[in-house]
Amino acid sequence: MVQPDTAPLNIYHALPKVELHRHLEGSLRLTTMLDIARSHGITIPASMLRLSGLVQIQDQDPLTFTNFLEKFKTLRLFYRSPDAIHRITREAVEDAARDNIRYMELRFTPVALSRAEGFPLHEVMDWVITSSQSAAKEFNIQVGLIASVNRHESPDLAEQVAWLAAQNIGRGLVGLDLAGNEAEFPSSPFVGVFKEARQAGLHITIHAGEWGPAANVREAIEVFNTERIGHGVRVIEDDAVTALAAERQTIFEVCITSNYQSGVVANLGRHPLASMLNQGIKATINTDDPSVSRITLSHEYQTANDLGLPLDVLKQCLLTSAEASFLPEAKRTQLVARLKKELSGLK
Predict the structure, then answer these.
(1) Which of 131, 111, 132 is nearest to 178 (CA)?
(2) CA of residue 30 relative to chain centroid, distance
(3) Is the pTM of this model over 0.85?
């Protein structure tokens, strides 16, 4: 876990935060995994420490995207029942609320959640919607949901997910995300699906410029007409794409620790977030997969401060997150106003 010593963590916990990029499948508690394994007869190490090695990044792990993605092979074993999915979702919302997150967009992959037991996609989506909205009320946090599809799967499957997501816009579904192995699978087969999703009223965010080059960021902006970029830190490898992103005011969902652990950034102290901001890119701070990375959003803000970003810049990143949220306009305006008021009292 990244824990710089620049300031007490409670300063960052006190920030009323917004999270735009958090995967449900990377947010499972170890204790919950053990409980589900026992109740469903899943063969995993009985030791918490050994289980952690399978599903969380360890200090001795190779910092590569293949090792990072490998953790999800074990994580997929736990979506074994409606009750398990309800519990995982509720706890993800609770953990965010405990970290003083006021609004979170939680993305989930219906296909991944359905595969362990062959659940129908519409039922999986309903379980996540029901649990997240109930937990949001219980823990006094606003939650929007983003349905995610993977590059290595078929566009037909993505179209099913997009259609179901559009049917649930009034129930907390706010967007559609393209994720997965960017290094080995192209985005181009999904252009039509995302165009139709946007026409149906879904907001769009695309993972790009993480394990793939800056050209993928250009494609996401110019071809997909995306509102936000997941990660996107390799944008600075191309001055023209950096200028395009700044001109279009595309929002970047930066995940500092994840970028380091997955090998995108070789040196944590040289993470490009500060450079992106200095070049006019609108960037936000997020966790990606808090359980896999063993972090909280408060830790990520602390890490950003350790990279040289002062508190006033962190506050602006936070407000950018609120302004870039996929909330309806009236609710977004209310969120921004509320956070501005709170932040003005934090020194």
Answers:
(1) 111
(2) 19
(3) yes
Catalytic residue among 91, 105, 210, 300: 210
Q: How far apart are CA 211 and CA 288, in angstroms?
A: 14
d(CA 6, CA 3): 9
Percent residues over pLDDT 90 in the chain: 91
Give the number of other CB atoms < 10 A from CB of residue 188. 12
Place of tokens 């062959």: 118
Return the SS3 of 84: helix
Fold of 9-344: TIM Barrel (3.20.20)
Strand partners, 229: 206, 252
Residue given tokens 């996609």 in the structure block:
121
- Comparing CA positions, the residue from 123, 42, 34, 40 lying closest to residue 82 is 123
Per-residue confidence band for 341, with pLDDT thresholds at 50, 70 and 90: very high
For residues 235 and 242, the answer to whether their CB atoms sit within 8 Å is: yes
Q: Is 300 a catalytic residue?
A: no
187, 224 contact by CB (below 8 A): yes
Q: Which residues, at least 6 apart from 338, have a Cβ–Cβ distance to it below 8 Å?
A: 16, 102
**DSSP secondary structure letters along 273-342:** HHHHHHTT-EEEE--BSHHHHT--HHHHHHHHHHTT--HHHHHHHHHHHHHT--S-HHHHHHHHHHHHHH
Count of beta carbons in the 10 Å neighbourhood of residue 222: 12
Walk across the sheet containing 173-179 and list its strands.
Answer: 17-23, 101-108, 142-150, 173-179, 203-208, 228-231, 251-254, 282-285
Strand (E) positions, 192-273? 203-208, 228-231, 251-254
Measured from the Cβ of residue 325, the count of other Cβ atoms closer than 10 Å reads: 26
Q: Using DSSP, state whether 177 is helix, strand or coil.
A: strand
Q: Are 142 and 103 in contact (CB under 8 A)?
A: yes
Q: Considering only CA atoms, which of 231, 229, 163 is closest in space to residue 202?
A: 163
Cα–Cα dist 252/258, whole Å? 14
Mean pLDDT, the chain, whole residue set: 95
Mean pLDDT of 190-194: 98
